[in-house]
Write a structure and sequence with these properties.
This protein is an alpha+beta fold. It has three domains: 52 residues, Orthogonal Bundle (Arc Repressor Mutant, subunit A); 56 residues, Arc Repressor Mutant, subunit A; 114 residues, no CATH class. It is 38% helix and 12% strand. It has ten helices and seven strands. The strands form two sheets. It has a five-stranded antiparallel β-sheet with strand order 3-4-5-7-6, with helices on both faces. The longest helix is centred in the middle third of the chain and has 21 residues. The termini are far apart. The structure holds a DNA duplex. One of its GO terms (cellular component) is nucleus. This is Myb domain protein 13, putative.
Length: 268
DNA sequence: AACTGTTGCAACCGCCGATGG
DNA sequence: ACCATCGGCGGTTGCAACAGT
């Protein structure tokens, strides 16, 4: 397919937006919305391409955007979510109201990476439950959650059970605002049978019920329960990890440790 | 004050998946 | 099934502001 000529070749403007352009875009979207980004600039009278308009709106002009520095809590949240999700900035942004993926990406590259490196260099180089060196590594090798996290406070490594369906490692991490538990398994979740998920769904835990969200997944789409903050990442042919939020830690821990052969529940 | 190096952030680029004809 | 188009995403760049000399 032949790519459409870029903005410049079409006689469209590039570069920083002027306050006048911002105002035109805001006024237009207030009146008519942004159903069709491609058509929008022409209709609004802007010499910009639709892509540029969309970006300007979503990253800067949207009324619900929170301006200003990131709080320590927000930074910690980003670090935790990055640990879980990798460089999926839009997914991280979705969990930080008022912040855009671009902004989070910038903060990560300008502040947080540095912070993690500093932590790594100091004696206090182990964030709670997460080794900073792994964060740095992870950026180069995205999403291999099977790397062991065994030497951090709060982590409770467990010997891999003989049965492939059991948990191999349960670790916890926490910061000022969030706590999460990472369950590393040697289970191929695609092979879990219906009974497993039926059991999960019928578990006697009313608080979990509201947290369930059936997600589209090629693993077990109709039976995969996942909390709003949880992610479920297949990492390779033989393993998967489940990350769960503090809202349902007990539930997941109990679920995955019923088989025994595991340490006592971490203090959470 | 002038120059140089560094940092932070807005914006762009290219790719990909979804969708519809 | 194929192709065109669109929106969205992550990576990267350009440049203004700032810090250091």
């Amino acid at each position: 397919m032949v790519r459409a000529p870029c903005c410049e070749k079409m006689g469209l403007k590039k570069g920083p937006w002027t306050p006048e352009e911002d105002q035109i875009l805001i006024n237009y979207i207030k009146l008519y919305g942004h159903g069709n980004w491609r058509a929008l600039p022409k209709q609004a009278g802007l010499l910009r391409c639709g892509k540029s308009c969309r970006l300007r709106w979503t990253n800067y002009l949207r009324p619900d955007i929170k301006r200003g520095n990131f709080t320590r809590e927000e930074e910690d949240t980003i670090i935790n979510l990055h640990e879980m999700l990798g460089n999926r900035w839009s997914a991280i942004a979705a969990r930080l109201p008022g912040r855009t993926d671009n902004e989070i990406k910038n903060v990560w590259h300008t502040h947080l990476k540095k912070r993690l490196k500093q932590n790594h260099g100091s004696n206090d180089n182990k964030r709670q439950g997460i080794d900073s060196s792994q964060d740095i590594k992870k950026e180069q090798e995205p999403v291999n959650f099977l790397s062991p996290v065994t030497d951090s406070p709060g982590c409770r490594p467990v010997s891999p059970p003989e049965s492939s369906s059991e948990v191999s490692t349960v670790t916890t991490s926490e910061n000022n605002s969030n706590m999460c538990m990472k369950i590393e398994t040697h289970q191929d979740f695609s092979e879990i049978d219906e009974n497993f998920w039926s059991e999960v769904l019928s578990a006697d835990n009313s608080s979990m019920a509201s947290d369930f969200q059936v997600v589209g997944s090629d693993l077990q789409p109709q039976y995969l329960p996942i909390s709003p903050l949880a992610t479920f990442e297949p990492v390779n042919d033989y393993g998967s990890n489940l990350y769960v939020s503090d809202t349902n830690m007990d539930f997941w821990y109990n679920l995955f440790t019923r088989a025994g052969d595991l340490p006592e529940q971490p203090e959470i």
